[in-house]
Specification:
The protein is mainly alpha-helical and about 350 residues long. The protein has 2 domains: about 30 residues; about 300 residues, 3-Layer(aba) Sandwich (Rossmann fold), CATH 3.40.50. It is about 45% helix and about 5% strand. Strands 2-1-3-4 form a 4-stranded parallel sheet.
């Protein structure tokens, strides 16, 4: 009986403490310790949106996707060899398509050209209702991002984040508490001045996953090295486009038409490997299947995937992240695609 009373006493005590902490979070609008939160991403978007506000006399070209484009372009080459001013808004493939559609609507301007080299996984994903990584980040970032998450999911996430076992694991993780506290301190300061200082100096280099790695166009272009091995099929054999993707793409398409914005869905980077090879007819069958499934919904995909399919030596640390040489090669091929599409001739 004594053990039972102790158990219930401990449980009630925990709930009281939990309720008190949760109340403080809500009142002060402070997110709890969220283990999946990516502080560097929040700051990266602050820099990218700052870049987007800069004035230019050239037609603007926006690049939007997950990290295959964050690591995969060199905007300086685009600016030097076309009449476009490039802005790279790409970040992380864990962010759902609705997030990027909202970002485009918030940042695009009349007359923009927007390219979407989306990772193939976007075509099959559904609503991010149970995506804890996404929910953690939206709550952590604040600034209205949590409007896309239901109150039930918010309460559930807070409860899980404050569960004794999860707190225990996080505090025991290497620099876990330090990381969480530092993240909240960073959230109260703007990264723009620090980034501008780096841009104006000779300190530009790859700082790993950090806003300081961004160049003046929003690219990661300083990473050097080569991944040891890649085995990735990239694309399902019998891909079916999700209703979620179709509805979000149509929402974006509607916005573009209303604002004289041109949208081009294109191919992400892929690596030559046993599971996705130019020597394998199945690879071409996958691409044809994707094109035909998109065509059923009047969604064209532009370019030739082979122009963005590279050998392993051009990849940095994942099957989607190019190193600096790979980013240059991909950018050169991207400009060739612009010429084939006669886009360069359409602008003054």
């Amino acid at each position: 009986m004594k053990k039972i009373l102790c158990f219930f006493g401990g449980f009630v005590g925990y709930m009281v403490v939990f309720g008190g902490i949760l109340g403080v979070f809500y009142i002060l609008k402070i997110p709890p310790f969220l283990a999946f939160g990516e502080e560097w991403l929040r700051n990266t978007f602050k820099i990218k949106e700052y870049i987007n506000t800069q004035t230019t006399q050239k037609p603007r070209l926006l690049i939007v996707s997950g990290s295959n484009s964050l690591f995969g372009f060199d905007g300086a080459i685009i600016k030097e060899n076309t009449q476009f001013h490039p802005i790279n808004l790409a970040a992380h493939a864990g962010l759902p398509f609705n997030f990027y559609v909202d970002k485009i609507i918030a940042n695009a301007k009349n007359g923009d050209y927007i390219f979407l080299p989306l990772e193939f996984g976007y075509y099959t994903k559904t609503e991010p209702k149970n995506n804890q990584w996404y929910i953690h980040n939206m709550l952590l970032w604040g600034e209205g991002y949590n409007k896309y998450i239901s109150k039930q999911d918010i309460l559930s996430t807070y409860f899980n984040a404050l569960a004794p076992l999860n707190l225990y694991k996080m505090f025991l993780a290497p620099n876990g508490l330090k990381y969480q506290i530092q993240g909240r301190l960073n959230a109260r300061t703007s990264p723009v001045s620090q980034w501008e200082k780096i841009i104006k100096s000779d300190e530009q280099k790859h700082y790993e996953y950090d806003f300081k790695s961004l160049n003046a166009y929003g690219d990661f272009v300083y990473q050097k090295g080569e991944i040891k091995q890649i085995e990735s099929e990239y694309l399902l054999d019998n891909i079916e486009i999700s209703d979620f993707f179709i509805s979000e793409y149509k929402r974006l398409e509607s916005f573009a038409k209303q604002n004289d914005i041109k949208i081009f869905l294109t191919y992400p980077v892929t690596a030559e490997n046993p599971n996705f090879s130019l020597q394998d007819p199945k690879t071409f069958a996958k691409i044809e299947r994707l094109k035909s499934e998109l065509a059923k919904h009047d969604i064209p995909i532009y370019g030739d995937f082979r122009d963005f399919h590279f050998e392993k030596l051009y990849f940095y640390n994942t099957n989607l992240h190019l190193n600096n040489e790979g980013a240059k090669l991909r950018t050169i091929n991207f400009i060739k695609m612009l010429r084939k599409l006669e886009i360069l001739k359409l602008t003054p």
